[in-house]
Write a structure and sequence with these properties.
The complex is a heterodimer of chains A (225) and B (292). Chain A is mainly α. Chain A has one domain. Chain A has nine helices and no strands. Chain B has 292 residues and is an alpha/beta fold. Chain B has two domains: 214 residues, P-loop containing nucleotide triphosphate hydrolases (Rossmann fold, 3-Layer(aba) Sandwich); 68 residues. Chain B contains eleven helices and 14 strands. The model of chain B has no long low-confidence stretch (mean pLDDT 87). Classes of the chains: A mainly alpha (225), B alpha/beta (292). The interface between A and B is medium-sized, with 26 and 30 residues.
Chain lengths: 225, 292
């Protein structure tokens, strides 16, 4: 397992260095506007950039058709999938923590953290977990091209639905649905308190990752290379 | 030690336009088995099935006496695998690959790997993308040979290699096989590579194993009968494995050259078949019925 993560770190180090540097730019990009952004936006941005690191490793392997080489190593396909998830959390989570810590060196970033640090960190963690859980199975099955087509397809679908809702007057219904979800989350937060809410979110993200991992194993076992 | 390093029983795999059905194959321990067949016959499919790079639909594959799916990691740890098209990330070099791959194998020797890179003339720090196709294949070979594998599973390993290196490689493999525990399954359509090197020859055609025989049987017992078209009438139909009709007469591949010699009498030439003759006559020749 650790040999697989180690292999990815050695063979993908330049990809990691280049993409990882992008995350380091987050404080500079977000502090350009006169009005500083909420800290959660800053954390979500860093989280998104960091989640792309493990995804880029899988995509790189797919791009060079090197998945067959990985599968020829003395490991099982299940090992490979598990290493994608563990490596994903290790690389994305580790780099996110490092970038956020490095950001504290900038006084302006320290000011951002003065309001709502706990919620922002929970938001970052959720974003990391959701992205890993959704993107990894998709990339394992369809590769980088499939991921890109999928993202473009989702955007197109969103636009079509939006236009359709506008045309049929259903936009209010969508707004009401979104608002009711936000209200439900808010009331749950009030009922269980911040600690209970954090535990629920972490449990939900972990459960989603477990389901995603199981699905990825099933997908990868039957993939012909 | 198992008698057979690889046993394939009743394996089935299908793609659109191609079906491999009920394939049985045995690769004896301590020998070189050459897998020959025209392009698209199923050689790569068979090798990929052994490595579980593609999923089988039916059948069993045992390597070192172990099921290749139930004991996947254990089995692969003892296989040196060369893919017909080595695919490593393009921006890595031989040094990176050695560092990344070495820890997977108990028998990996960094010293042996460096020596092989030197012998094969592979620049250690040159990126994979910048290597020629032949050099890329040599790098894949160096990786396969660096961990003292018990079974070398090679799919078209000499593709893109010059004649001199191909000869060196075969000598290298022959040296490895002095250890009687080592075995090689070597798939190729360059039959001359196997002529002197292989102990057993397996011919695959349209996803089916046509035969699997000791090379000595092919060399000593089989023959190519050359003569006028009427020579076919004198041969036993079950003995004729392939026929090619040309402007100067017919060539018939027979499994029993001495019987054919008796049947045909003097005036008919019967040569020892080369593997190329076998491959061409059995896969691209005319059918005996049509010719006869």
């Amino acid at each position: 397992m650790w040999n697989l993560i180690r292999k990815d770190l050695i063979l993908g180090r330049w990809t990691l260095i280049v993409n990882g540097s992008m995350a380091l730019l987050a404080p500079f990009i977000l502090l350009i506007p006169d009005e500083p952004p909420p800290v959660i936006l800053y954390v979500l941005y860093v989280g998104l950039m960091c989640t792309m690191l493990p995804v880029s490793l899988i995509a790189k392997e797919d791009k060079f058709s090197a998945t067959a080489f990985t599968c020829s190593l003395p490991v099982t396909r299940d090992d490979i999938v598990t290493s994608r998830y563990l490596g994903g959390w290790f690389i994305a989570g580790g780099w996110m923590a490092a970038v956020l810590a490095l950001g504290l060196l900038a006084p302006a970033v320290r000011d951002l953290w003065s309001n709502g640090a706990g919620g922002a960190l929970l938001g970052g963690l959720t974003m990391l977990g959701l992205t890993i859980a959704i993107v990894i199975p998709f990339t394992i099955r369809f590769g980088m091209n499939g991921l890109l087509f999928g993202l473009v397809g989702l955007q197109v679908l969103g636009m079509v639905l939006f236009i359709g809702a506008l045309a049929t007057g259903g936009l209010d219904g969508i707004e009401r649905a979104v608002k009711s979800v936000i209200d439900a989350v808010g009331s749950y937060h009030e009922r269980v308190g911040p600690a209970g809410f954090a535990v629920t979110v972490i449990f939900g993200v972990a459960l989603l990752n477990w389901v995603s991992w199981k699905a990825s194993r099933r997908i990868f076992r039957t993939r012909d290379l | 030690m198992e008698d057979n390093v690889l046993e394939i029983r009743g394996v089935h795999k299908s793609y659109p336009g191609f079906t491999m059905r009920d394939v049985d194959l045995v690769v004896p321990t301590g020998h070189v088995t050459g897998l020959i067949g025209p392009n698209g016959a199923g050689k790569t499919t068979l090798v990929k099935l052994v490595m579980n790079l593609i999923t089988r639909e039916a059948g069993e594959i045992d390597v070192f006496g172990l099921d290749n799916l139930l004991h996947e990691a254990e089995v692969k740890a003892r296989i040196g695998f060369v893919y017909d098209e080595p695919n490593f990330p393009h921006d890595v070099n031989a040094r990176d690959l050695g560092r990344a791959i070495g820890p997977f194998y108990r028998g990996w020797s960094g010293e042996r790997y460096r020596r092989l890179l030197g012998e094969f003339g592979i620049p250690v720090r040159k990126r994979f993308k910048a290597l020629s196709k032949g050099m890329q294949m040599k790098l894949a070979l160096a990786i396969a040979l660096a961990h003292d594998a018990d079974l070398l599973l090679m799919d078209e390993p000499t593709a893109g290699l010059d004649l001199e290196f191909r000869r060196d490689l075969l000598e290298h493999l022959a040296a490895i096989l002095e250890d009687e525990r080592k075995s090689v399954l070597f798939s190729t359509h360059v039959t001359s590579d196997l002529e002197r090197f292989a102990d057993f020859i397996t011919l695959i055609r349209d996803g089916e194993i046509v035969f699997s025989l000791p090379t000595s049987d092919l060399r000593d017992a089989w023959g190519v009968v050359k003569g006028a078209a009427d020579v076919l009438a004198r041969l036993d139909a079950p003995d004729v494995r392939g026929v090619r009709t040309g402007p100067h007469g017919v060539e018939a591949l027979v499994a029993n050259a001495s019987l054919a010699r008796t049947k045909c009498g003097p005036g008919v030439v019967i040569d020892r078949p080369s593997l190329d003759d076998v491959l061409v006559l059995m896969t691209r020749g005319d059918s005996y019925v049509e010719s006869h």
